[in-house]
Amino acid sequence: MNLTLYMHPLSSYCHKVLIALYENDIPFKTHFLDLMNEAVRRDFLAMWPIGKMPLLRDEEKGQTVIESSIILEYLDMHYPGKTRFLPTDPERRLEARRWDRICDLYLHHSMQKIVGDRLRPEGKGDPFGVEEAKERVRTVYQMIDREMADKTWALGEEFTIADCSAAPALFYSNRVLPLDGYQNAAAYLERLKERPSYTRALREAEPYFKLFPGPKEESGNSSNK
Description:
This protein is of the alpha+beta class.
């Protein structure tokens, strides 16, 4: 098997890549990353000094591919299947990339800011930064809610990189800031969860969801476990 995905089943960005791999039934093996393990972390940093997952290793081509969006473009280029993540039409390709960036930079990243704050030691939180992140999440919710008023997927009937990005970003954001009042966005999330590729990724992640940190005010002294 040529492809190895370095990942953790709970990682939202890993979900994005898993969706793409499962969409096109691309054979691969997983390398479980426990970055709390010093030896595992050291070996992973030797491959990718930034130390962020996911990472895709293609042994046949001798390529190490980083960053979820780049991995999806790489799969589209070298392992194409029935689902093309970047449309062939240039204008639609730009639109897919635009939504991919919106979901990653403004929804995904903001959600991780909120979650990361829950993991900080007592007295080291950033309440102002968390409120900024929540406001940005709400802004993207509004954008998605308007966009999905009459669409199945981000670009209409065509499932693309934009949807691969939106699925984990919306799923985890909804856990920290529920989609209450955003009917179209909530319905879109349900369609994403029912997509067989994401259903499979979520099923594999299910044993790890207990590790997802709840709000500090609800978890008390257990928030750093």
